[in-house]
C-alpha cells in the first residue's frame, strides 16, 4: 500500500490554498487508489474507466487530480468503478473504494430487507413517508460524520 496521503493539492479556486476536500482517510485516498488500480489494469486509461463505469470523464479526472471533493460521490458510481476494475481483473473491494473516498461503507444489499422497507413505506400516509425519508437522511448524515 502507498503511504498515507493526508491532503490534496490546493484548490485552484481557493485564495487561501486550502485543499479541495477534507484530509484523506488513513491509507490511500481515492486519487491514489484509482491511479494505482489504473496502473494495475495495464493499458487502461481514465477515459476507459469513465466510459465503462458511466462516470463522466471530467468528473473522474477531477477526483484523480484532487480538484474536486469526494464526499458527495454517489455510492452507485463507486460500486460501478469497482465492478469495472474487477471486470478488468484488478482486485478491489467496495470497502477500499468507499474508505478511500472518505465515505461510510454501505451495508450489504439485501433484497428481502429492501423489499420489506419498500412495503412499509408504501403503506404509510404521505406525511409519514416524508418523515421516514427525513429520518433515513438524518441517519445517513450521522453515519458520514461518525466515519
Automatic annotation (TrEMBL):
InterPro entries: Cro/C1-type_HTH, Lambda_DNA-bd_dom_sf. Signal peptide: none annotated. It comes from the Bacteria. Residues 39-78 form the HTH cro/C1-type domain. Gene3D superfamilies: lambda repressor-like DNA-binding domains. Residues 1-27 are annotated as: Disordered. This is Helix-turn-helix transcriptional regulator.
Amino acid at each position: 500500500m502507498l503511504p498515507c496521503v493526508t491532503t490534496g493539492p490546493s484548490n485552484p479556486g481557493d485564495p487561501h490554498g486550502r485543499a479541495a476536500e477534507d484530509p484523506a482517510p488513513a491509507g490511500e485516498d481515492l486519487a491514489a487508489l484509482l491511479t494505482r488500480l489504473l496502473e494495475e489494469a495495464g493499458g487502461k486509461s481514465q477515459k476507459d474507466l469513465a466510459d465503462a463505469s458511466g462516470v463522466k470523464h471530467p468528473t473522474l479526472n477531477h477526483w484523480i487530480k484532487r480538484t474536486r471533493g469526494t464526499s458527495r460521490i454517489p455510492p452507485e458510481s463507486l460500486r460501478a468503478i469497482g465492478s469495472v476494475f474487477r471486470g478488468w481483473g484488478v482486485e478491489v473491494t467496495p470497502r477500499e473504494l468507499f474508505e478511500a473516498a472518505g465515505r461510510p461503507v454501505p451495508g450489504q444489499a439485501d433484497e428481502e430487507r429492501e423489499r420489506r422497507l419498500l412495503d412499509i413505506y408504501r403503506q404509510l400516509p404521505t406525511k409519514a413517508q416524508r418523515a421516514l425519508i427525513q429520518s433515513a437522511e438524518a441517519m445517513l448524515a450521522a453515519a458520514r460524520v461518525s466515519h
